[in-house]
Write a structure and sequence with these properties.
The protein is an alpha/beta fold. The protein has two domains: about 200 residues, Rossmann fold; about 100 residues, Alpha-Beta Plaits (2-Layer Sandwich), CATH 3.30.70.20. The chain is built from ten helices and nine strands. It has a five-stranded parallel sheet with strand order 2-1-3-4-5, sandwiched between helices. The longest helix is centred in the first third of the chain and has 23 residues. It starts with a strand and ends in a 23-residue tail after the last strand.
Length: about 300
């Protein structure tokens, strides 16, 4: 087996940014080894502008960067490579549902498997869960690293402002660089297995998550651009014509206008909030996050880099 694959799950860009930096580090390490011919085998904006579309990063050809999406999981991927790195955010001290499904539905044959998690506070039992999923697949977890980043769960924690915003972005850069160096050196570390409190919190979060889409509201400022549909990693959004409940024709509700607006599927939504954070009109509201509330996305990730469809 040969090659390096990095699988990432990202809504606001934090994990994609970290995944790209790790790809650069591992790509440089692989290129250096090949050239030697030896026998030893970052104030985030709250508005979406055209400048965001131009934010790109070159991933080394020796590294394959793969987004974890509902479509990928449905294909039941067979992951076979020399090095596999899983980059994901911790949700309520645990794994996002889409990451859990990826681990459950995939097969693995990897020489060196690593996991890197971004978080606002702590990863909790995330790595423990990965270790258990992989054990069922007879695959070892060799390395795990936590990367503190900007807290993006804005409806509870609010928008991170300066100077803390810059501090968190700087910390993410430092921790990502350190993780990249350790990964390039094929470092092996241990994962603590017993995380009862984290498991409980995450279980409650996942139980409540199915009801969260009911609190997503689409305001009249929605222009039907479909960006939310295209960036949703869980394929939980469909664009539909809204019915006018007041205007009826022959007793049947008629189409309100020509615009298609997002409709959320409760059982699919992973609550990554990418739709709300990236909406150019701030038309998607969730609980106390209103059209006037500040949004967050990583300042060095463009929206087009997160489009899935």
């Amino acid at each position: 087996m040969d090659g390096i694959k990095i699988y990432y799950f990202s809504g606001t860009g934090n994990c994609l940014w970290t995944a790209r930096r790790i790809a650069e580090e591992l790509g440089e390490e692989r290129t250096a080894a090949t050239d030697g011919m030896t026998d030893n085998t970052t104030e985030a904006t709250d508005n979406i502008t055209e400048a965001d579309d131009n934010t790109t990063s070159q991933v080394p050809k020796s590294v394959e960067l793969v987004a974890i999406t509902a479509e990928l999981i449905d294909a039941r991927p067979a992951v076979q490579c020399d090095v596999c790195v899983l980059v994901f955010p911790s949700y309520a001290y645990g794994l996002p549902t889409l990451v859990r499904r990826f681990l459950k539905n995939s097969t693995f044959k990897v020489n060196y498997f690593a996991a890197v998690s971004t978080c606002g506070s702590h990863t909790g039992g995330s790595f423990t869960s990965i270790k258990r999923f992989l054990k069922k697949k007879k695959q070892a977890l060799h390395f795990a690293a936590e990367v503190r980043s900007v807290e993006n769960y804005v409806h509870i924690f609010g928008f991170t402002k300066e100077p803390k915003l810059s501090e968190r972005l700087h910390n993410q850069a430092e921790k990502t660089a350190a993780a990249g160096e350790l990964l390039a050196a094929r470092t092996v570390n241990k994962v603590r297995n017993f995380r009862p409190f984290s498991a409980l919190i995450n279980l409650l979060f996942r139980a409540a998550k199915c009801a969260f889409p009911l609190f997503y509201k689409v305001k009249k400022t929605c222009n039907g651009c479909g960006l939310c549909y295209s960036i949703c990693p869980s394929a939980a959004i469909t664009m539909v014509h809204e019915k006018d409940k007041k205007a009826r024709k022959s007793g049947v509700m008629v189409q309100k206008d020509d615009l298609k607006r997002p409709k959320f599927a409760a059982m699919k939504c992973d609550h990554c909030q990418a739709c709300m954070q990236w909406c150019p009109k701030r038309a998607i509201k969730f609980m106390r996050v209103t059209p006037r509330s500040l949004r967050y996305h990583h300042p060095e990730v463009g929206v087009n880099e997160l489009r899935k469809r």
